[in-house]
Amino acid sequence: MAHGGGGRAMAQLLDDVFRPAFDNPWLAKQHDGAVVEMPGAMAFTTDSYVVRPLFFPGSDIGTMAVHGTVNDLAMCGARPQYLSAGFILEEGLPLATLRRVVDSMAAAAVEAGVQIVTGDLKVVERGKADGVYINTAGVGKVVAPKPVEPTRIQPGDRILLSGDLGRHGVAVMTAREKLELESAIESDCASVVQPVLALLEEGIDVRCLRDLTRGGLASALVEVAESAGLAAEIREVDIPVREDVSAFCDLLGLDPLHVANEGRFIAIVAEQDVARATDILRRYPVSQGAVEIGHFVQGAAGLVTASSMIGASRVIDRLSGEQLPRIC
Amino acid sequence: MTDGCRVEAAPVRWRVQIHGLVQGVGFRPFVYRLATGLGLSGWVSNTPEGVVVEAEGHPEALQNLVSGLKQQAPVNARVEAVCAEPIARSTGLEAGREFRVCESQEQGTAATRLPVDLAPCRQCIEELHDPGNRRYRYPFINCTDCGPRYSLIEGLPYDRARTAMRYFQMCSHCLAEYHDPASRRFHAEPNACPDCGPRVAFCQPDGTVLAEDEAAVSEAVRRLAKGDIIALKGLGGFQLLADARSTRVVQTLRERKHRPRKPLAVMFDSLASLQQVCPVSASESQLLTGPERPIVLLRTPDYHLAANLAPGRADLGVMLPCTPLHELLLGDLGFPVVATSGNLSGEPIAIDNQEAYARLGAIADGFLVHDRPILRPLDDSVIRVLAGQPQILRRARGYSPNLSLPRPVPVGWAATGGHLKSTVALSTGSGVVLSQHLGDMNSALGRDGFVLTVDGLQTLFATEPQCWVHDAHPDYFTTRYAQDRGNVPCAVQHHVGHIAAVMAEHGISEPVLGVAWDGSGLGDDNTLWGGEFLRLDSQGYERVAHLRQFRLPGGEAAMGEPRRSALGLLYALLGDQVMECEELAPVSSFTLTERKLLIQSLSAGLNAPETSSVGRLFDAVAALSGICQQASYEGQAAGELEAARGRNYWASPYPFELSAPEAGRPWQVDWAPAIHALLDDVRRGRPVSGISAAFHQGLVNVIVAVARQAKLSRVVLAGGCFQNACLLESTITALEGAGFQVFWPCRIPPNDGGLALGQLAWASRALWGREGACVWPYRDA
Ligand SMILES: [Fe+3]
Ligand SMILES: [Mg+2]
Ligand SMILES: [Zn+2]
Ligand SMILES: [Zn+2]
After folding, report:
1. Which of A327, B52, B85, B310 has the most neighbouring CB atoms within 10 Å?
2. Which residue numbers delimit the Acylphosphatase-like domain (chain B) (predicted)?
3. The domains spanning A7-142 and A150-316 adopt the same CATH topology
4. From CA A195, how far away is CA A74, in angstroms rounded?
5. How many Å apart are CA B280 and CA B265, to the nearest integer?
6. pLDDT per residue as tens, chain A (328 positions)
7. Calpha distance A251→A249 (Å, rounded)
8. DSSP state string for A88-127
9. What is the tens place of the pLDDT at every residue in B650-688?
10. What is the whole-number distance in angstroms between the Cα of residue A263 and the centre of ligand 3?
11. Within this chain, do residues B705 and B569 fall inside the same structural domain, yes or no?
12. Which chain B residues in 712-751 lie under 8 Å from chain A, judged by CB atoms?
């Protein structure tokens, strides 16, 4: 990859790599932007992806860039439809690497049922970026009949967790630091659109949805509880963490509740909907491990407590940056 | 006055204000007796500021009243100031021969010292055991000299109507005593008897009442004798009791409470029974029998009780009955019991009956409860005698919240302490108050207790702090709490706080060399400090020297696993070679895969923060000597390493090196030569006692060496590591021998329990010795 202005090289790249991969009528028009029909309420989100390394067990930056954004749309109670993709490439990036990333994005877009309809490409000098940075923005049609937001949460509402925690964060960390595990732990990166749409379409009163990306379950719960003006209580024993992930976290002193995920979310539903919602989620591979882990209660806004096996409870805090020990 | 004619001095009237600990200690009855004895008329009353007297009579008698107030005050009172001023004589109704004790006055602003909870006095104990007395075997007997105070106060001034005793209507007998100035129970606010006062009941874990009154006590005795674990509602919260002679019973308690090794305190019925089990020094017995009735740590590895009371430790915590109920129970039992706080690990003690059934139902086989509410949880205080002086390790029942300091601290400040062993300090109009031990801020109940205590102290002392001081760690609950209070928050570095606390206790502001040896606290460079030599003066502080740093694999996980500290230390010393050090216990305690991962995390600095903590060095050495790889309670490794020293009181010290600093950088205390020597010893199979002695001795030498470099005559020792009696005593001796003046924590805990005081004193120090309110902004020099 050579650094340069617009030029012929860039046009070549678009024709060789991007258009064939994302092949759709909008891109084919080679227009400055895409014109799409969007009747009714629309959800709109954007996110940038700067993960290092670009490829890690179970996933890569391209897949993440699509799933991350479609999942954010799903969390708004929307069916994701169109995505944009902006690339910042580091000069010298092997073309083969770029192809892999782009192919992953294309595959992920198919899986999530979205079209990448517009995009941008810039190349910066060697050393000014880490291979590839990707920004995606997305729009989707809101299908939830009632707003999906924390303010609708009521005391007594249940917290459903869509599956086991921590695999994405551990996968990225092991790849980045080249840690040697007995068997690789693969990222959970995936689209959660299908189970979310199923919940909405089958009439579950979904009060709130939140994906468990950076900061993990802990940050998501604290944020949601803060916005809801409620406290939450969870049962640590009921939170699924795979044995290898749990052993890794124990050894490295990480709390799986704080580790990032890319295919996990919590759904807050009314108590009477718990059983049905759990059944619906379990129909889909990405959420087949769905389980109820706790509920909201009247209390200090944002106070999340986890009860342990022996019955004592600890407060789950959102921590600032690197976790420096608090024990003296 | 006419020349040559002697005139009888006309009666005058004085108003006398008394400040200090003068409520709840029988002060008004004392004033009554003093004043009537001097033939004065007038009245005495409690006020929020203390006690006020208006007395009228002969000027000489008034002089005697004032000196008597200072010199003959009741034993438990602390008179800090007596101010007398003449006022106009009364007329009409007020005039007369009479001296009255008035109800308390509610108006006023600041509070006085708070009355603290005191063990039954000798007279009450005598009555308790006198079959002829109407309070024979009554578990709530008390008088103006003794009984519950702080644990049941709702507000000030201290009057029955503002205590948990307001739920009990005094019978005519009790009321007569309460109003009789000649009685020991004159205005004894918790006054009660079997006819009108609180009662005990024995309940099943679900709260079903099985027996009441005398039968409840006998049921508890019967159950304890057959090996049951009993939850007892004490003065400041629930305690768990169990037969201290039975290793099996103690083991059951440990399993149910999830406390596999943490030392348990033992309660004896009397000093005499205790002395049959282990030797007690004169100063120790003084602490044991004092009205505060703390747990006293005796340095005695040999006692004939259950073997698992304090495994691996060189000391045993003991105490004597602290309430009449304990007195009855222990007397009837005839054997000592374990008395440990009624909580789940990490949570505060339970104080409410229903709450106790819910939280302790799975631990206790039965509950001995009563119907007098406890308004604030107070753990048992822990104290020991060290270098000939008492040293408090946990400040709570009997001591909190009063604290008298040699120098005034500006009013209007609050400090929120640490994250574990939290306490709160407030500077009020009547001095600094330091809350009782509030414990672990990881639990929601702990945080609730913290918030309630801060609010409660603010109300009791009618104070609204303007500046909230906190630790520099952004994620301590207490940091966030202080920052959320609006006003002006202010951070004090952890170890500066530790040293400043000792300076405040001893009233020193001159430049000192502070030796803060501790677990780990956030340092100014974002690493974990804890082996610090800081120069402190009224202007600011400077890091003079620190322990050489090493990484802690797993960060917070390293706090409970000494083997991790050892691995981090070895990695800093040997690099990847650590992998092969199979012969070392901490290394072989990890599987090959684990070891590989941890070493990778060390080399990448992945959740492996750097530390200069001496606490973690102790952990590492304990692990390397094979004493403790994984700890089940805080301070276990260091405590067991100290105990391992045994009678081997001297060994040639391990060499620590004071390496010359780069320009403008602190000196570094390099442990490398010491650890090399230690590894040689471990490989040669030297007994742990020798290793421990050589390590301790090496540390002492290095403190003296740094002190010589720093060239400051005053050295302050602070931080959790100085809970190690052996380290503290030898350091004091060595430093004093080298001509230094040494200060160490005595009336406040060396651990984070003293931190709040240091934060408060340090942040407000610009105003030390001066009057006035908080001046802001204040910045470190
Ligand atoms: Fe500390
Ligand atoms: Mg996002
Ligand atoms: Zn008494
Ligand atoms: Zn009575």
Report:
1. B310
2. 13-103
3. no
4. 10
5. 15
6. 565 555 677 778 888 888 888 888 888 887 888 898 888 999 999 999 999 999 999 999 999 999 999 999 999 999 999 999 999 999 999 999 999 999 999 999 999 999 999 999 999 999 999 999 999 999 999 999 999 999 999 999 999 999 999 999 999 999 999 998 888 899 999 999 999 999 999 999 999 999 999 999 999 999 999 999 999 999 999 999 999 999 999 999 999 999 999 999 999 999 999 999 999 999 999 999 999 999 999 999 999 999 987 777 899 998 876 667 777 7
7. 5
8. EEETT--HHHHHHHHHHHHHHHHHHT-EEEEEEEEEE-TT
9. 789 999 999 877 788 899 999 999 999 999 999 999 999
10. 67
11. yes
12. 720, 751
> What range does the domain containing B86 cover?
12-101
Residue A161's alpha-carbon distances to A288, B378, B420, in angstroms, are 10, 40, 31
- Cα separation, A311 vs A118, whole angstroms: 53
Give yes or no for a contact between A152 and A285, defined as CB atoms under 8 angstroms apart: no
Residue B547 lies in a domain: yes
Q: How far is CA B82 from CA B18, B65, B69, B74, in A?
A: 5, 11, 8, 15
Closest to B537 measured CA to CA, from B586, B499, B575: B499
What residues pack around ion ligand 2 (CB closer than 5 A)? A 47, 72
Q: Are strands B541-547 and B667-670 parallel, antiparallel or unpaired?
A: parallel
CATH of domain A7-142: 3.30.1330.10
B714: closest CA among B739, B733, B737? B739
Average pLDDT over residues B136-156: 93
Rg (CA), chain B: 28
In one-letter notation, the amino acid at residue B683 is R
Compute the C-alpha angle B676/B681/B685, nearest 5°.
Answer: 150
- Of the residues B595, B606, B619, B752, the best mutation for testing chain A's interface (the one with the most A CB atoms within 10 Å of its CB) is B606
Using the mean position of ligand 4's atoms as its centre, give its distance from the Cα of residue B188 in Å: 12
3-state SS of B144-197? CCEECCHHHECCCCCCHHHEHHHHCCCCHHHHHHHHCCCCCCCCCCCCCCCCCC
| Side-chain half-sphere exposure of B269, counting CA atoms within 13 A | 14
CA distances to A110, A292, B516 from A107, rounded to whole Å, are: 5, 31, 59
Per the structure, how many domains does chain B have? 4
Q: Residues of chain B with pLDDT > 70: what percent?
A: 94
Q: Give B 565-594 residues with CB within 8 A of chain A.
A: 593-594
- Say if residue B340 is in the same domain as residue B411: no
* CATH topology assigned to domain A150-316: Phosphoribosyl-aminoimidazole Synthetase; Chain A, domain 2 (3.90.650)
Non-local (6+) Cβ contacts of B534 within 8 A are B495, B496, B499, B513, B514, B516, B541, B542, B543, B544
Active-site residue, selected from the candidate residues B6, B13, B15, B28: B28
Q: What is the ipTM of this complex?
A: 0.92
- The answer to whether residues B565 and B645 belong to one domain is yes
Picking from B101, B127, B161, the residue at the C-terminal end of a domain is B101
